[in-house]
Structures are given as C-alpha cells and as structure tokens.
Design brief:
It contains two helices and two strands. It has 72 residues and is α+β, with helices and mostly antiparallel strands. The chain has one domain. It is flat and about 45 Å long. This is Pyruvate:ferredoxin (Flavodoxin) oxidoreductase.
Length: 72
Amino acid sequence: MEANLSNPHIVTIDGNEAAAYVAHKTNEVIAIYPITPSSVMGELCDERSSQGKTNLWGAVPEVISNMTDFVR
C-alpha cells in the first residue's frame, strides 16, 4: 500500500486523541480503565469500535472496560 503524500489529510488533535487513534488502529482488544484524565482515550476507542471502524487488519477492535477498583 502506498501513502498519498501529495494531498495529506491534516488534523489538529490532542495527545489523548492521538493515543486513542493509534491504539484503535494497532490492537484487536483494547482494555480500558475509565479514570480521569485518560478516560477520553477509552471513550474515543469505544466510539470508533461502535461505529464499526476497523484497525489496520480490517477487524473492529473489541473494547473491554473494567469498572471496578482492585482492592488488595
């Protein structure tokens, strides 16, 4: 696959969005633990998967959320 560098698609995003984009594109399963300030990354990955957006291999990543605190 060749990249089309003559007409790049440029967007301005923050670090959380960039991390979520890369995580969604490069994983089959995304485990999230919704805590601030990283909650945005999990929400964005979950949104992309629920919209049916695929990763680099053509699969929709599964997003698994852990909503409990671990107590030892």
